[in-house]
């Protein structure tokens, strides 16, 4: 008897906007499979795991199989709708989490602006601050503004960064 060791699913590390696009693409692909009544979860001809199963598994999402080929019947056509609903909820959750995170960062930038505090580098230590990571993780342009010990950027950086975040929110829906 062989022993199989299972490892936890690898979580996908895409920026939220990319993850939303990837999920929307997978959603369209799933709808195409539904229109053609094709197998999902396992390839209908080879019975090997397919891209849908991989996509859902990598993200820890619940997946429903549907196969009706070569005398094998697994699941039902309702699996398409259940998986579509799962992907729609997943997108909605990403958007909600990202909106909360971005709105919090906008408030923080507004607070820093009201106190004329440095952004991009800590005003005391001149070490990078959390704004750099936040913008970098989303591949957004960030403009620093420091007037303590050094002079970097313009005061308009506060508003420009806030505008960048608001535009980003619009882009993810």
> What series of H and E elements makes up the topology?
HHEEHHH
Structural class: mainly alpha
Mean pLDDT: 92
Q: What helical percentage do the residues reach?
A: 40-55%
Tally the beta strands: 2
Strand order of the biggest β-sheet: 1-2
The portion of residues forming beta strands comes to under 5%
Number of domains: 2
**Which term fits the overall shape?**
rod-shaped
Q: Tell me the radius of gyration.
A: 23 Å
Please work out how many helical segments DSSP would assign: 5
Q: What is the CA-CA span between the terminal residues?
A: 51 Å
Largest sheet: 2 strands, antiparallel
Please summarize what this structure is.
This protein is mainly alpha-helical and 173 residues long. The chain is 52% helix and 5% strand. The chain has a two-stranded antiparallel ribbon.
Describe it for me?
- The protein is mainly α and 173 residues long.
- The chain has 2 domains: 16-93, no CATH class; 95-172, no CATH class.
- Helix content is 52%, strand content 5%.
- Strand 1 and strand 2 (72-75) form a beta hairpin.
- Helix 1 packs antiparallel against helix 3.
- The longest helix is centred in the middle third of the chain and has 38 residues, at 78-115.
- It is rod-shaped, with a radius of gyration of 23 Å.
- Residues 1-10 have low confidence and may be disordered.
Can you lay out the helices and strands and say which pair or pack?
Layout lengths: L15 H21 L14 H8 L7 E4 L2 E4 L2 H38 L14 H8 L19 H15 L2
Antiparallel strand pairs: 1-2
Helix pairs in contact: 1-3, 3-5
What key phrases describe this protein's structure?
173 residues; mainly alpha; 2 strands; 5% strand; disordered N terminus
């Amino acid at each position: 008897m062989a022993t199989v060791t299972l490892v936890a699913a690898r979580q996908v590390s895409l920026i939220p906007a990319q993850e939303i696009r990837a999920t929307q693409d997978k959603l369209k692909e799933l709808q195409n499979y539904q229109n053609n009544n094709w197998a999902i979860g396992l390839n209908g001809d080879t019975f090997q795991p397919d891209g849908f199963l991989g996509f859902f598994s990598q993200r820890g999402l619940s997946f429903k199989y549907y196969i009706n080929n070569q005398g094998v019947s697994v699941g039902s056509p309702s699996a398409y709708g259940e998986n579509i609903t799962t992907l729609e909820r997943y997108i909605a959750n990403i958007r909600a989490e990202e909106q909360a995170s971005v709105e919090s960062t906008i408030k923080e930038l507004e607070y820093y602006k009201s106190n004329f505090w440095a952004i991009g580098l800590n005003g005391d230590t001149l070490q990078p601050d959390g704004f750099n990571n936040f913008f970098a993780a989303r591949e957004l342009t960030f403009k620093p503004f420091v007037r303590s010990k050094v002079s970097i950027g313009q005061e308009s950086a506060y508003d420009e960064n806030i505008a960048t975040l608001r535009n980003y929110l619009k882009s993810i829906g």
